[in-house]
Amino acid sequence: MRDLIIIGAGPAGLAAALYATRKRIDCLVISKDLGGKSNYSVHLPESEGPGAIRADELVTVYKNRLEYLRHSHRLAGVKELTASDGAFVCTLDDGSTERARAVIVATGTHLRRIEVPGEKQFLSRGLGYSSISYSHLFAGKRVFLAGDTDRVLDSTLEISIHADAVTTALLAGGRYSPDLLARVGEIDRVTVIEEATIKEFRGDEYAREVVVSSSAGEQTIAADGFFVEPEPEPNTGFVGSGIGLESNGSLKVDGENRTGVPGLFAAGDVTGNGYEQILVSLGEGAKAALSAYRYLLKTGNRRE
Ligand SMILES: Cc1cc2nc3c(=O)[nH]c(=O)nc-3n(C[C@H](O)[C@H](O)[C@H](O)COP(=O)(O)OP(=O)(O)OC[C@H]3O[C@@H](n4cnc5c(N)ncnc54)[C@H](O)[C@@H]3O)c2cc1C
Predict the structure, then answer these.
(1) Which of 66, 107, 120, 275 is the pocket-test mutation for ligand 1 (most atoms within 8 Å of CB)?
(2) Does the N-terminal or the C-terminal CB of the chain have fewer CB atoms within 10 Å?
(3) Ligand 1 mean position to 107 CA, how many Å?
(4) Which among 247, 200, 223 is positioned nearest to 131, based on CA atoms?
(5) Is the shortest distance between the CB of 32 and ligand 1 below 6 Å?
(6) Span from the CA of 12 to the centroid of ligand 1 (angstroms)
(7) What is the C-alpha separation between 303 and 295, in angstroms, rounded?
(8) Which residue in 28, 34, 39 sits closest to 278, CA to CA?
(9) How far is CA 231 from CA 43, 118, 147, 148, 249, in A?
(10) Maximum Cα–Cα distance across the chain
């Protein structure tokens, strides 16, 4: 049995792995890929520049380290995680198992696609699923946002600080807080389309316009950036029933990245921290590894 398994190798899992290695913990990283969502970025027309926090600069060093330490990671999916008698069992997609005294879950989130023409074609070319990393790049520009929860209203408040014009499509069937809706309604630069359905994204190299239908009919909206903001879904489908999840599927942690189960830690987007930032995930991964190290020291002598 190992000391520690880290599930996921996005920024959180990679930083956890680096710290675990430094502490010479007997650790295995199990992940479907290396880098996670930091492998993607949204390119905006005429907005490339020093404003963006570059994933490749931040994460590559951690990725290279793990690639070098080949014995310490398995490129595989975990299909089940169970806890019993102070030990954790990970069952992998191929049916094999790995055991450890402690586990860090760093499996991030995934985003629902809306499945409309042009979505796949322009994804990352002017069209993204999270505006939080890019809002400051829209000074003086036009932005289109769409979503079905308060997340899109929060994004609208943030982007309208920078952009000259924001069109926010509230998708039909969504749920929005009246207070937040009223606050957004007070901003002159924001146009809200209620009960909206997105029909199509169009463009050239980048997304340039979106076709939206609503009770007002069908309209074509041009913008410099497009964001569809569904609520991100935590990748926790493999977490066994004995381990409590929040109602949205996230793994809640305390200030030391401990979950409610002794020996089980979580870091990054999977915790539902709401920041969705590479630097936040890197920091949480490091913290989770150091907390796991303390836990291992307290619960067993590593040189016994
Ligand atoms: C298009 C796009 C652009 C972005 N741009 C920026 C930006 O410019 N700046 C910024 O700071 N942030 C940006 N973000 C957000 C940032 O990428 C994420 O906040 C960050 O990657 C989260 O790190 P994480 O380690 O928590 O999760 P993730 O990066 O999601 O990594 C999760 C890891 O878990 C693995 N995994 C998942 N399920 C399993 C399983 N069952 N078994 C094994 N492994 C599993 C995955 O393969 C992956 O390695 C962007 C996100 C997207 C989608």
Answers:
(1) 107
(2) C
(3) 8
(4) 223
(5) yes
(6) 8
(7) 15
(8) 39
(9) 22, 21, 8, 8, 12
(10) 73
Specify burial of residue 188 (Cβ count, 10 A radius: 0-12, 13-18, 19+).
exposed
Q: Which stretches within 225-269 are classed as H helix?
A: none
Domains of the chain: 2-110+232-299 (3.50.50.60), 119-228 (3.50.50.60)
SS3 284: helix
For a pocket test of ligand 1, which of 98, 278, 282, 287 has the largest count of ligand atoms closer than 8 A to its C-beta?
278
Separation between Cα atoms, residue 145 and residue 230, nearest integer Å:
10
The tokens for 34 are 């290396």
Predicted TM-score of the model (pTM) = 0.91
CA distances from 16 to 26, 56, 202, 214 (A): 13, 18, 41, 46
Beta strand extents in 9-77 (DSSP E only): 27-31, 73-75
The answer to whether the CB of 286 is under 6 A from ligand 1 is: no
Average pLDDT of the residues in 146-153: 95
- One-letter amino acid of 138: F
Q: 46: how many CB neighbours lie within 10 A of its CB?
A: 9
Quick check: CB of 277 below 6 Å from ligand 1?
Answer: yes
Return the H-helix or E-strand segment holding 84. strand 78-84
Rounded distance between C-alpha atoms, residue 247 and residue 243, angstroms:
13
| Atom of ligand 1 at shortest range from CA of 279 | 11
What is the structure's pLDDT at 201? 97
pLDDT of residue 235 exceeding 90, the answer is: yes
Any atom of ligand 1 within 6 Å of the Cβ of 281: yes
How far CA 8 is from CA of 16, 28, 62, 239, in Å, comes to: 10, 11, 13, 13
Contacts of 160 (CB under 8 A, 6+ apart): 166, 184, 187, 189, 190
